[in-house]
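Below is how a single chain appears once it has passed through the pipeline. First comes the sequence as given, then the structure the pipeline wrote out for it. We keep one example in the README because the format questions we get most often are answered faster by looking than by reading.
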Amino acid sequence: MLKFVYLVNRVEGMSAEEFTAYHRERHAPLFASIPEARELVRKYAISHPVPAPDHPAPAYDSVTEIWFDNWADHDAFFTSENYLERVQPDEAVFIDLATLGVVVTEERVVL
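Resulting structure:
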């Protein structure tokens, strides 16, 4: 299984609170609403920073994780009409695409 980890920053002018609310209440439900998400995505998780005294400030505003069984499912999802016309345009509303980080992994659970 392939796991894609996206390190996300918000667009300039959007507060952290606005970003988190938009991501949770608008974008994530939109992502989950397209049929290709239910057919091809094995897991979709979004995480946002919480207060962490005595720790450095977060380097990113969010971590998004998307799991696929294989590259073919990944490619089919990200080239689908629903993703390209409905989900992808929404990303630019709240994500600073110029600073987006991506790590493709194969997760190994240790504990």
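The mean pLDDT is 96.

See the next section for the split statistics.
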